[in-house]
């Protein structure tokens, strides 16, 4: 038995497997602090919100009274929540679609071989300007521009339009489209830079082959450029949809969800429910609903990336 144990101990293959097994856990040790921090900063608050959504008068009530799905029923039957979700869908869809169109257009302009290098550099710096502003600065800037006596109305009046006193952010009909327009201006550089990188990675040989087959510029765009950018476009659109659906500071600083809830989206609805009406339980239920929608988008994003990796 002693000899056998010695042979096993001295077996180099067994020793290598033991070392490999011991070293396999090393990467997880390096990741552990970050995971722990994320659990503390994100996991615990999310868990508390889920717990609060099943409690009557959470936070303000010292007694934890379980009410089941009552808070969810209250929120899901609230017409204001329906309006907030509808506004969120419009805000997200309009922003993402415009980000894609503008980003692709500007990327194509900057990738053009017929443009002088100096002009291309100047335009690239100009197009990326919105990224230089924080959300707070963007909101303040556009509140000044969109003021009834501000720059926009003055310019429109100067070119012959009757724009005197137009309330861009106070009109029930104009407020939501205006906020969407501001968000489009603030967010299109992400698409532009990402799609420009994608355009520059497309092999020129593909365009040469298309030219040999007598494909025109339009045909090359639809049969070469767009298919090559498909993965980038889908990933960007899903990621932007997640971010835009959770946009709070820009809308809050521009309109506060008004006028008369015209720009009320899910994040501002939840904020008001929690910190203006102190209905923390119902706010938690609404937050869980929004979280589930965001998780669905996140799953689609991860699956899209995984598919892109498999297709390589």
UniProtKB/TrEMBL annotation:
Pfam family of the protein (one): BPD_transp_1
- Gene3D superfamilies recorded: MetI-like
The protein's name: Sugar ABC transporter permease
| ABC transmembrane type-1 domain sequence ranges | 85-301
Show the InterPro entries listed in the entry. Answer: ABC_transporter_permease (IPR051393), MetI-like (IPR000515), MetI-like_sf (IPR035906)
Q: Which UniProt keywords apply?
A: Cell membrane, Membrane, Transmembrane, Transmembrane helix, Transport
Q: Which family does it belong to?
A: Belongs to the binding-protein-dependent transport system permease family.
One GO biological process term is:
transmembrane transport
- Identify its membrane topology class: Multi-pass membrane protein
């Amino acid at each position: 038995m002693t000899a056998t144990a010695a042979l096993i101990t001295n077996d180099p293959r067994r020793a290598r497997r033991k070392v490999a097994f011991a070293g396999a856990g090393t990467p997880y040790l390096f990741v552990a602090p970050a995971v722990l921090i994320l659990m503390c900063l994100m996991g615990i608050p999310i868990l508390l919100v889920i717990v609060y959504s099943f409690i009557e008068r959470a936070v303000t009530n010292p007694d934890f009274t379980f009410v089941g799905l009552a808070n969810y029923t209250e929120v899901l039957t609230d017409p204001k929540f329906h309006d907030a979700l509808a506004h969120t869908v419009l805000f997200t869809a309009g922003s993402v679609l415009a980000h894609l169109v503008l980003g692709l257009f500007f990327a194509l302009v900057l990738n053009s071989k017929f443009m002088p290098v100096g002009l291309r550099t100047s335009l690239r710096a100009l197009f990326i300007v919105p990224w230089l502003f924080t959300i707070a600065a963007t909101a303040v800037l556009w509140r000044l521009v969109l003021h009834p006596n501000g720059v926009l109305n003055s310019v429109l009046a100067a070119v012959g339009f009757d724009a005197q006193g137009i309330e861009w952010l106070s009109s029930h009909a104009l407020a939501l489209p205006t906020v969407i327009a501001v968000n489009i201006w603030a967010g299109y550089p992400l698409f532009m830079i990402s799609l420009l990188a994608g355009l520059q990675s497309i092999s020129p040989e593909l365009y040469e082959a298309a030219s040999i087959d007598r494909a025109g510029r339009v045909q090359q765009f639809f049969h070469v450029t767009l298919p090559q950018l498909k993965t980038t476009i889908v990933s960007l659109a899903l990621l932007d949809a997640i971010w835009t659906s959770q946009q709070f500071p820009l809308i809050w600083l521009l309109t506060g969800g008004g006028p008369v809830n015209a720009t009320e989206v899910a994040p501002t609805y939840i904020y008001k429910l929690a910190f203006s009406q102190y209905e923390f339980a119902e706010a938690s239920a609404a937050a869980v609903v929004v979280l589930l929608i965001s998780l669905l988008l996140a799953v689609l994003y991860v699956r899209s990336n995984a598919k892109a990796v498999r297709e390589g």
